[in-house]
Amino acid sequence: MAAIFSPSALLSPPSTTAATAKAPSPPSLPLPPSKPLAATLTATLAAATLLSSPLSSLADSTYRIYYGTAASAANYGGYGGNASKQDTAEYVYDVPEGWKERLVSKVEKGTNGTDSEFYNPKKRSEREYLTSLAGFRQLAPKDTVLNNLALSDVELQDLIAGANSVRSEERKDESGQVYYVYEVDGVGAHSLISVTCAKNKLYAHFVNAPTPEWNRDQAMLRHIHESFKTVGSY
After folding, report:
1. What is the DSSP string of 121-132?
2. Is 82 helix (H, G, I), strand (E, B) or coil?
3. Which strands sit side by side in the sheet containing 178-185, from one edge to the other?
C-alpha cells in the first residue's frame, strides 16, 4: 500500500536542533506505477455489472430459434418444418442448445398434425413439440380445446386423467392475438401447453418433462414454453 503515503514523508530525515552535519539523503526508490483511477473504476463497475446481471440475460446464448413452416401433410418433407426457411415460417420457438431434432414422418403429420419436435438426448421424455391443424378460424372454449387436443394424444390423456392440478388462462400478445395457456401437474410428469389460431390453423406447442427433470430445469422449460409465437400476417 505504498501509494497512499507521501514519498517525501518516507525519505526525509527527522529535523535536529543542533548544528549537526547533515547526513546524505538515501537514494529515492521508484514507486510502482498505479493504474489510472478511471481505468480502475471502469474495471470495478464492469465486474459488478456482470455479477449483478440476471441469469436470464446471460443465458440467451444457450438457445437457438427454430422456424417452423407448418407444411401440409401432402407437401411435408419429414423435417419438422424446414428451419432454414425463415421467410416462410409460420411460427417460432426457442430450442435449448444440445437438444436434438426428431424427424417427424408424413404419416404422423397427417394423423395428429405433429410438425416439429426436439428432445433432450440425456432424457428423451424431456421434450418440446408443436402440432398444427388446418380449418380453425378461432379458438373454442378453453376446456374444449384441451379435451380435443387430448383425443389425439394418448400421453396427454393419461397425464390429465391423473393430474394433481390443471390450470388454464387466456393471454394476448402485443398485437392482440389470443393464446390459451395450460399447465398440467401430473403424476410423475409436468406439461406446459400454449395454443392459438392464425392463418385458419390451430397451433399447439407442448413442453413436457418427467418430475425430476421439471424440478431441475423448470426455468429453462418455462422459457421455451413462453418463447412460442406465430409469425407473419394473419
Report:
1. TTEEEEEEEEEE
2. coil
3. 100-101, 114-120, 123-134, 201-210, 189-198, 178-185, 165-172
C-alpha cell at 88: 416462410
Checking if the pLDDT of 31 tops 90, the result is: no
CA distances from 211 to 123, 124, 126, 184 (A): 12, 13, 10, 12
pLDDT in tens, 64-83: 999 998 877 666 654 444 44
Give 199-211 pLDDT, tens digit per residue.
999 999 999 999 9
Beta carbons of 184 and 161 less than 8 angstroms apart:
no
Q: Using alpha carbons, list the distances in angstroms from residue 9 to 1, 21, 23, 67, 133.
A: 15, 21, 16, 71, 85
Ranges 16-30, 70-84, 191-205: which has the least confidence: 16-30
Q: Are 180 and 170 in contact (CB under 8 A)?
A: yes
Which residues, at least 6 apart from 229, have a Cβ–Cβ distance to it below 8 Å? 91, 92, 93, 173
Q: What is the mean pLDDT of residues 139-147?
A: 95
| Residues belonging to the chain | 234
